[in-house]
Design a protein that fits this description.
Low-confidence stretches: 1-8, 249-256
Mean pLDDT: 87
Number of strands: 18
Number of helices: 14
Strand content: 15-25%
Length: about 450
Amino acid sequence: MTRTSGFKVHKDTTGGEFRRHLEKRIPLQPGEAVTVTFSIAGHAKGDLIGYGVWFWRTAAVTYTLQGGSDKRTLTEYGDASWNKAGSMWPAPDTSPVEVTLTLTAKAKGAVALYAPMCGRVQHKYLDDARPELMRNMYQFAPEALFISEDGAGEVVIEAAEDASSTDLPVILKSCNRCGRFLPVNVPVERDQLSFSNHCVADHRRPCKHATFGRLRNVEDAKEVLQLDYGYQLECRFCKKFEVNAAHNPQRTSAQMKEDGARRRAFELLLAELYGGTPQLRYRHEKGTELADDVWKRFGCACFNCGAKLPTPRDMHLDHTRPLALLWPLDGTATVLCGSCNSEKRDRAPSDFYTPAKLAALAKITGIPPDDLAKTHPNEEALALLLRRLDWFFGEFLLREEMTKERDGKIAGELVVKALQKVLARSGQHKGMNLQAEYDRRRTQKR
């Protein structure tokens, strides 16, 4: 068993409730700024420290974040949504830390802030977490900032004018694990804050799942928000530690080896179908190295979190569109840091990035925005495969690495099953039953 029910709820919430919270706008004249200073002191070396805030700003307001860890969260949503900024990291020493978020108006505008916080971060899951679970925790700020009440953190907000009497609403959704109400963006649901979306694929929208796709106002039972994408019941922090982290240890070493074997088989298959590895073909066509060119194209930094990657060896080249759907690692690859690459895994771009990020990714990679928004397989590779079925069954699956048996499973059989799943998502070749063809040919040989 690798999964358990996700419907174990907090005694006070189901994960399907929301409440409206009102924050005061801070008015800004052209050239004026709101400065949020996070000061952390009194911590010990190795303590987990962090800062964070949710904020809204009008379109004419720009913002910068300075100080603290180089790895941080800073979203770039439009003025229809709330943003978030933050990070968390182990303190390298006892030196005080100061981080500044500055929001500056190019024209008359306004800013609103929700729950600015900083200091030492303490939680039972963080204290005992496996090292691999802590590598990307900066991506979970501020929703994962369980700030200790020991006075190690101070937040100072400076503005030319006091907050106005104009209210700005923020929607807070409940988590069915920790019971907290945390910000979400409605109606621009893909501008994710504290919860991941539930139904992302076009064919699953609007989300019709009870609780995921409908939120009930805890203060007015008659008000129900019908969502398009919907939200997970658990906040991103609880999803990571109470759901996903609990499942990962249940995956056996054999299962992980199977995943690795399938990836290697798909890479080998693509190299055969396209006549060479992507790196060698790229070098032959361009006269330069694939990794070097992609690294420079992305500004020598992680596309997702912005972390600087001093050399190509520091980066992870992501397929952009997943290898699991037969997309090769070619000139459309994306530069990610190790943490972001591990978090993305085999997800399609639209299942991982926001619409704003997808638009930026389309410009850099040259992949049309409509293609990035889809979760379709590589139809070209499937067509090449189906034209060479005799070779696939008569040569490729008979190679030594494809006929090896591990834990009672033959590698080639696993590849056929994986390819059948890809075909099931195809718009052009959905009717092809590769599994049945494999069984038929195997029976004939007997």
